[in-house]
Design a protein that fits this description.
single chain, alpha+beta, HIT family, subunit A, five-stranded antiparallel β-sheet, 5 strands, binds 2'-deoxyguanosine-5'-monophosphate
Length: 114
């Protein structure tokens, strides 16, 4: 896959407001927040889209979800609630082709999404 701007954020070549990092994942604040809390959780491994998740990624994807829920608790939005979103390909609204989990909260959200 072609490298994206998220690879540069992982390598710290461009700045980001990082809220969590370990060997497998990085979590940082979205540059265009859709709520008072909007954090992206990304794997350090380059996986382009949800369609590219293989059996070998199951633990990694589970880890991303657990990190997102821990960040939600750290941000103080867990009890009120939040949304976890993975946009896939053009119809899903994906703009950056390095898979990422959006954690959005701090406001009441509507359903269905637009
Ligand atoms: P998506 O549409 O699901 O591909 O979301 C991509 C998100 O990435 C979008 O909400 C804006 C965010 N984003 C894009 N470039 C940057 C960047 O350079 N820094 C940060 N922090 N976020 C970015």
């Amino acid at each position: 896959m072609a490298e994206t701007i998220f690879s540069k954020i992982i390598r710290k070549e461009i700045p980001a407001d990082i809220v969590f990092e370990d060997e497998q994942v990085l979590a940082f604040r979205d540059i265009n927040p859709q709520g008072p809390t909007h954090v992206l959780v990304i794997p350090k491994e380059e996986i382009a889209t949800a369609n590219d998740i293989g059996e070998e990624h199951e633990l990694l994807i589970g880890h991303m979800v657990r990190v997102a829920t821990q960040v939600a608790k750290d941000e103080g939005i867990a009890e009120d609630g939040y949304r976890l979103v993975v946009n896939c390909n053009p119809d899903g609204g994906q703009e950056v082709y390095h898979i990422h989990l959006h954690l959005i909260g701090g406001r009441k959200m509507t359903w269905p999404p637009g």
